[in-house]
Predict the 3D structure of the following.
Amino acid sequence: MSDSIKYTLDEQDIPKSWYNIVADLPSPPPPVLHPGTTQPIGPDDLAPIFPMAVIEQEVSQEREIEIPEPVRDVYRQWRPTPLYRARRLEQALDTPARIYYKYEGVSPAGSHKPNTAIPQAFYNKQEGIKRIITETGAGQWGSALAIAGAFFGIDVEVFMVRVSFDQKPYRRTFMQSFGAQCIASPSDLTASGRAILEEHPDSTGSLGIAISEAVERAVQRDDSKYALGSVLNHVLLHQTVIGQEARRQFDLADDYPDVVVGCTGGGSNFAGVAFPFLGERLRGGPATEFVAVEPAACPTLTKGKYAYDFGDTAHLTPLVKMHTLGSTYVPPGFHAGGLRYHGMAPLLSHITEQEYIKPRAYQQLTCFEAGLQFAQAEGILPAPEANHAVKGAIDEALKCKEEGVSRCILFNLCGHGHFDMQAYRDYMDGKLTDQVYEESEIAMALAGLPSVA
Ligand SMILES: *Cc1c(COP(=O)(O)O)cnc(C)c1O
């Protein structure tokens, strides 16, 4: 049996800039609109929510955006992350495919989220902000921002989706360990939370609701800003350190991916691993394929409508054009909490419309099965979200076996599952079921899409 291989880089190989794919796209993504006027918004409209440096990145057309030295200094704690050739998994699958994975679970939060939490906290600090307010689904983003806040001396307040708050009590303890406050959402702290509770006292919450609560709190105080852990251009940008490092590691491996696979909740870890390779393709490089895997119970890219919609349930955010299930849609409480978002990153939606990305949806049971098969071969237990990418990669490898061809597969292992033992417990006890979304509920939510001329 040949062992799996690890490709490592030196600290000086941490990228010096983030890669902005907008510079290489044949057409720019549609503008963000003001919900009142439905006219394109300007930087001033976003100023109450985000620091100016972040807003500039959100609208930037520059290909390379320099990573500030203090951010690289913190990245050094866990970056560059390893790239592995999963030889033992290949053997278990008896496939001619070459399977590689980039492992983001080595970060202090256990996921890719600190890649953007660190720069966001840094820019807020630079602009004198005292408190950052955010939401979290599975708890990964709240954990990452809690650590970033502790590093840069900023208070962090996290609205955590109720179903995850109940499923993962240790996540709250983790965030509190770094001094962050954690509130179950919907809460009675905000008007948007109270409105939901009045109608649905037992609401399991959703990312859309938690975003409303966090934005509402953030705009109330001058010394507070809001931070988002996915979806927006600047978040996708920060995550490109993943793919840039992987690109160099493939040089060490003397290989190049034929297909790149990632899971998609809001789209940031997928964009992070995929965009540097897609950029090469757009500039005339190899015709790599890109597979975005989402949960069948929240099928944004495969079943959603590409339309202007709000990012949150209470309609406090600007309008963005994205694949959406409707901002009032509350996905069922399945166990990959980080993938329970009604929309998709506008930039990723735009690129998917141009047919560079193949979206695919899987049910949760088959993903857990794939995750355990991966764990038994490679020794890392993936986060339930990451299991979607694992399943996507395994299916690609099995297709190679069927066709008798050896293709090179890269997937992003975006986080470990050490906080997700309850999900694995439920899976092993046979308590986990495949959940279907309610067609009628999505139809209702889509009927409520804002009209944009
Ligand atoms: C947050 C999270 C996701 C989903 O967010 P993306 O922006 O789609 O990456 C997926 N996996 C893990 C481990 C996460 O923490």
Remarks:
- Residues 5-14+68-110+234-447 form a domain with the Rossmann fold fold (CATH 3.40.50.1100).
- Residues 111, 113, 140-141, 230, 263-270, 338-339, 383, 385-386, 414-415 surround pyridoxal-5'-phosphate (CB under 6 Å).
- The CA atoms of residues 144 and 154 lie 13 Å apart.
